[in-house]
Amino acid sequence: MGSASSVLTQYDIEEVEEHCDHLFTQQEIVSLYERFCQLDKNAKGFISADEFLSVPEFALNPLSHRLLKMVDGLNFKDFVAFLSAFSSKPTLPQKIEIIFKVYDTDCNGKVTFSDLIEVLHDLTGSFMSDKQREEVLSQLLHEAGYTKESSLLFNDFVKILDSPGLKMEVEVPVD
Amino acid sequence: MGKLNTSSSELDFDRPNIEDYLPSGSIQEPHGKLRLRDLLDISPTLTEAAGAIVDDSFTRCFKSNPPEPWNWNIYLFPLWCLGVVVRYGLLFPLRVIVLTIGWIIFLSCYFPVHFLLKGHDKLRKRLERGLVELICSFFVASWTGVVKYHGPRPCMRPKQVFVANHTSMIDFIVLEQMTAFAVIMQKHPGALFLESLGCIWFNRSESKDREIVAKKLREHVHGADNNPLLIFPEGTCVNNHYTVMFKKGAFELGCTVCPIAIKYNKIFVDAFWNSRKQSFTTHLLQLMTSWAVVCDVWYLEPQNLKPGETPIEFAERVRDIISVRAGLRKVPWDGYLKYSRPSPKHRERKQQSFAESILRRLEEK
User: In three state form, how does the secondary structure of B316-353 look?
Assistant: First the structure.
């Protein structure tokens, strides 16, 4: 740990554990704290967008700017809560919640056709034309029983993504 | 509808494939008919991003790993205090004296030699080289450097270049003590003695600089009378546990490359100069107030470009040789990412593979 100013006490660890619904173990929380301090270069108490983007593996991810919006400026408690969707223990709805939030940019609980197109654009870049993306999406929506005009809700996502199960686990290195 | 739009940016041949190094456990090649789920399921990409937030190989390269503190109990602590007194009160002043004497000898010999022997270049150069080796030995003594050299000493031959892994500016001094290398380094004030060794300057922030520097390198190497050239192809200091990618500049000069591996023993002090955390003076003071700097230097077998090998492959092969010898792990990152963002070409490769997979599966009915 770099800065001597903030040391994690047992109370702090338990508070964070409570806040993330016990999805991380206490050891993992301590490791995440070390990582948090490593990224938060001047011990501000939060990690700025710039500091996230200084991790090249994160910066070259096609969805990095969407995740950045969700994680920029979070304090440590909320940082752990955010990452808890990627631990080994969350339920399926908890995992799908983060996927839904990535799509639902205006946070109104509905994912429209244009939201879907935007994310597909991030993932495929200039390697598919807009027309191709629209065609593929329309066709697949139609096959699944939706239309271009329908807005997908959280429960629709749960239904679509349920089988065969979502693998979204990140290992926290514990010394 | 199966045609893929080709990207306007060309494939980057400048670096090896990052995908070979990055963990790809969760990304299996999907098969079968395309369904809505496959488009909506962004979990692999999200997992990669979250994985990078939690731990990434690039940040690990530049993490300082100071030796573990051992003064944690009632009888070790007084011993440690005694050690501090000896180090700061006795060793440090002694070392400063040694260094001052060294500088006095060096300066009082260097300037006369440099100016009085203007006409006798060969003799002058030989004496100057000897003097630089001398001052470097004084420096190494000032940190009680225990350096073990393995392998045949470098000799002065034309058409050869030396490359080494980089941990701190003291790498240069440790190597210079044995052989008066010419070196290529980032422009910074206060290193004018190195002019006499034939040093080459570059400026990281200037992009046009690369061609000029490449030309200077080539000229130096082909000159018979020049000092052997030492290059640190990583381009930045790494923490002596990893190696970052080697820049190909040293490997396309059309000459033999002699690898040198340097490994510091952290038992007394961590020699990594974390330039983001401390200035060079602080780093030097830290070295001068520790017990010793212990390191191993291996001069390895000279390598040549194999037929059919590109300079990048050559650079990676030499990096492999050095990393294996010094027990360092390889990562696929460019050291300059410390100062800049990755180019969008890497992102484009991911996008391309995803787009291709979608369009391919669309064809499968």
Answer: HHHHHHHHHHHCCEECCCCHHHHCCCCCHHHHHHHHHH
